[in-house]
Amino acid sequence: MDNLVTLSEAEVGRAREQVEQIVRASGTTFYWAMRLLPGEKRRAMFAVYAFCRIVDDIADDPNPLDVKKRELARWRDEIRALYSGRPKDPVAIALAEPVAHFGLAEADFQAVIDGMETDAAETLRLATRDELLQYCDRVACAVGRLSCRIFGLGAEIGDRLAAALGLALQLTNILRDLDEDAARDRLYLPDDLLADHGVAARDPQGVLADANLTAAVAEIGALAGEKFAEARALLGQCEADRVKPATMMMEAYERIFRRMRARGWHRVREPAGLSKAEKLWVAFRYGLL
Hints:
- By secondary structure, the chain is mainly α.
- The chain has helices spanning 9-26, 31-35, 39-60, 65-83, 90-102, 106-120, 129-151, 155-176, 178-183, 191-196, 204-209, 213-235, 244-263, 276-288.
- It starts with 8 loop residues before the first helix and ends with a helix.
């Protein structure tokens, strides 16, 4: 980043405003936890979140696959330009200072785009548990690594926290959204997991109708539970004020996870989100106090 093209204060100011608008418009409950971070860290988290929001929206848009691939490729080029000191997109401009100040790794941004390319596919299937773990690392743990650098955690504990919490959150997402993903011909439960538990079908609707699904889901649930416990222990080793956004995310998602686990994995297809009141409580309790 030593060759960064000098950007005017006006350019940087407009980029920061656009990033905050993206975060606000997303409606994320975690806005308030990020909002309470010190100025430089807050701007950095907003910029990372805006980047993730943009590439995630590209993957989820109902555009033809070639259009989505083209847009994601543009963002690959934009990240390369950012690390060459020549960002052009406002979000990339907003990322320039955080990248330089916090030492954010280009590989983590590119990993997120890799994950979004997986999500962009018209039909999504994973062959092995290793592929599932790789996908989770790309779409969740890589974001955690970027965030932990911004929080000011050391690389050793930061990377461990990113790995544990990212995996716990993403596996919870996968279990919570089985029906929604199946409607879009997406199935994140890998073939080898299904085969090991006697699930014969491979199309999403057939998998969800199989009586043996419960055992496959229970295995994923057990792994998520282990990772929540690991993440909680690691957060306990960190200064609380540094990791408020991470703590808030864990508390929100672990509530969803515990709800699903308590009612039984045979009922995994039932809705399990948080009410608006619950989200506000988590935001207040873990973001403001």
